Amino acid sequence: MVVKNLKLTLKRAISDVEVTRLYPEVLMDLPSAERGLHILDIRTCIGCGACARICPNNCVELVPYNRGNPLKNKKLKYPQIDYGRCMFCGLCVDECPPSCLTMGKAFEITGWERDQVIYGPDKIAVGKYTDQELAELAVEAKKAEEEKKKKAAAAKAKKAKEAKAKAAKEGDGDSGEKAAENKAE
Amino acid sequence: MTTAKEVLDALQSSFPGSIQESREESDRRLWATIKPNMIVDVCKFLTDKFDFDHYSGSAGMDKIDENLFEVTEIMASHGAHQVVALLKVKTPRDNPSVKSLTGLYWNANWYEREIWEMLGINFEGHPGLYPLLLPDDLIGSWPWRKDFKGYPDYNTGERGIEKPTPDGYTEYIFPPTDAEIKAGTVPVVRPKYPSFQELEEAEIKAESEMILHLGPQHPMILGPFLLDLLVDGERVKKAFMDMGYIHKGIEKIMENRTYLQGITYTDRMCYIASLSNNEAYCGAVERLMGIEAPPRAQYIRVILEELSRIQSHLIGVGEFLEFLGGATFSPFQWMIVDREDVLSCIESVTGARITHSFVRFGGVRNDLPDGFAEMTRPVLKNMVERCEEYKELLLSDSIYRKRMEGVGVLKPADARRLGVSGPPLRASDTSYDMRKEDPILVYPDLDFNVITRTAGDSEARVEVRLDEMIESCYIIEQCLDQIPTGPIQEKVPKKIKPDPGEAYCRVEDPRGEMGFYVVSDGTNKPARVKARGPVFAYFQALPPLLEGVYVADVVAIAGSMDACTSEVDR
Amino acid sequence: MVLSSTITTISEFAAQEPKLFGLIIGLVGAAIIASVINIGAMGAVWLERKFLADITNRYGPNRVGTRWGIFQLVADAIKLFTKEDSIPLGADKPVYVWAPIVASATTMLVAAALPFGALNIGGKEYPLVVANMDISAFYVEAGLSIMAIAAFMAGWSSNNKYSMLGAFRGVARMISYEVPMGICVISVAIMAHSLNLVDIVHAQSIWYVFAQPLGFVVFTVALITDLGRIPFDQTEAEEEIIAGYVTEYGGIRWGLLYFQEYITMILGAMLLVLLFLGGWNGVTLPFLAPISPMIWYIMKVLIVLIFMIWVRGSLVRFRIDQVTDLGWKWMLPLSMVNLAWAVAVGLYFA
Questions:
Q1: In chain C, what residues touch A8 (CB-CB under 8 Å)?
Q2: Which of A29, A56, B491, C161 has the largest CB neighbor count within 10 A?
Q3: pLDDT tier for residue B179 given thresholds of 50, 70 and 90
Q4: Half-sphere exposure (CA, 13 Å, Cβ side) for C270?
């Protein structure tokens, strides 16, 4: 009648072990393909905004970040993800051209207010530049900028000299006003 | 076997001049535009001569450029042949009106109610055009029309004036513009429908009868829907159902998102079996684009969809056992424990346990990880053992059999007429499985049976699900043996812009026949996406089944149908 | 030594002032019994949660109060005491308030007549019972059925359709199963030649589970039905009528009704042990001679409790019309057969 039910229940009671995971002492063993909180490799990010365009919920916003690479364009912006809206679909990861945005295994995120779950580049980035590296890169950037300025000044001077030579060649036949005008320009 | 060409030739010879356009997409798909006043005769002809007795659904579309509405009726057959005929009817936008098919097909009722409340198309001859998914105060604004202003207006961002209603909610009213006042076309007060309370209390005839609400909030039901029973003591005399408590407007949202973003929305239609929804949508868009996934991707899709079927059936049968025996009924808890193993297998590939968004156009997102076969085979073996154990347990439990035998019997003819599909239909002695009727991917290469039972009662439905789980395990084993190496994604352009056209793809969801109808107009967003879910037909079929049973049986019947309300309301 | 001298003092006092002695014994006994059965109910709930978890591969309470979760019920009781006391708007207020009190009163009445074991001091057995009545078997069995009145009061006064359905089901169930249960008790009394529970225990030289097997089966099924346990818990079936007759109760009122269910479970288990399983009879254990009957008694009651919890975790519930069917078409005739059997056997051995 119902004997089989009772027998099976007793067998399970005696032989089986508990399967409850004692969270938070014991955490789950997540696979490598797990779609958790994002990880941004800040050194490879080019600030293209493909992740922001593809997000179905408009969670990704590009914001300026003061610890970015000084060698690159100062206007470079990095993604900021609003986890209050994110549904962990992974489309941003698929679209990223340099493959610098990936999803990791972390999944615990809480906050008292809504702005506490908006994670900017400082929270989701890895491989951030240390202060020493930033200083070195800043020095390099300054050097590069001075080089650029020097080059620009040299090129400008060269151009001015060429123009003067040309004006002098033509100014022999022409009136002196034109030469004066050119010089003033 | 009848082919689409035969059907089209027969139609053209019998109804000359009524077929305005026609297209044969393949041996199994027929698209035709019929003149509005001939649609009922054409359907009757198809039913009588070619056995098109399965009315699958209907979709309404707003073609604002051509100033037309278009209603597409989807007709198929329960096993006589494999042709799906999609018949379109066009009607002008000013005074839209289409003939109703409720005279021929009983289950056309709710589909037409939905098209009416969303688009404003009047169906002549429909027994009762009441709102189904929308609340009363949205009737008249016709949300699916392309010029629906919305709250707030999608183009200008303007919000209407907030006005509190007597019930304590807030309504938004768009004030009439000066032009409207001058032209005299100020919007009128919307019509009022009799509320459910009035409808039900009109049915009370005796002192001992009362209305019992297994209503929107109840420990029994998965997902909110209204189920009111007119009971006399413990016997149910009549049942009333209403939907729309979880209507999210997914189909309208998908018109404003690109094709790739739309995949994430199809997940959320039925979140328990989201891979089948993904597959149906991607299958339809792949047909529009004219591409096909490489073989390895097809095998991966089949493996994951069968795993998803196993875990969905575990939830379905487990929840149903919970309804019978309380939350501490042990087989329910054991099924949840078994489900964890299956979910871990799925998670190792897709990265998520629910709402996977895994299938892409022309392939899949990730490849199988190393060691997937070694992880999955023991799980499958364990699953087969456990399913045999559950079957034996339920068969030998006489209290369970007393509760379930002969309860909620669906006779085969009724099941077909009511439009159900999936395990309830197969439990009523009809072999109708999308994997054999409309095979996609690698299903033609696999060897499996379609499980049927003859009894048609709740017990048969549960047995069909348990057997299907075992069958799925065999399918996955075959796939793991046969899977080739190779690429997992076909080359698709970065911006997906299919040529203008339309496609309809059907898959076997764990709950039944799931179909996606996608229309493209050449831009990067679809013009119309319609999801035809299986549970819509179950709920439509439930009130007639519930007459004359005990209150305790209502739970047994509704639970054995394995509903997922989110799919009904979309 | 100290023990025997205390007992002689008390017996002298009892001889001098019998009425006062009876009153004091009654009051002290009532206080002890009330606390013991309430703590026993807490223990029963804890046992149920732990055993059900064991069946279903879980842990059960394992955080509050060491690894075994023994203070979980205390935490739950504190939570219930601190909840808001709300009475539904259209409810019948006096009946609504008195229903849990009637339920508690029932259990106290029943517990007053039920022996809680025995102590074996100096070769003489002292049964631990507050009111040693001559008809205690019948009284206990009848008292257990007053719970249905409390359930009906609760269900009817709540002004709620689900509670009303639950109340109706409870009354239907009680009416169908009282008669078979009463007849089984009478069959046991016929064999033991007395309705006093203490005498029934003394008369069980062989346990009545072997002498009247049919009676044992019928009585067990009827007892599980009377207590409202799965597979017979239609009065509070969560999936059909939300919570049955306790739908509108919250806070400590619900706590009282919930606990009464478990107290009646313990008392019913004790009744079963006393009638059919030999009460506290058993081989005297060598080192624990004074409390040896107590240990046997508690062990048997625990086994019956675990059996009831085991049944709860394994079976689905019946439909209400199947319950009444079972009661009138199967239990009643079988109990009549058992009565005939008891009379025949009794006459044979007399």
A1: 314
A2: A56
A3: low
A4: 30
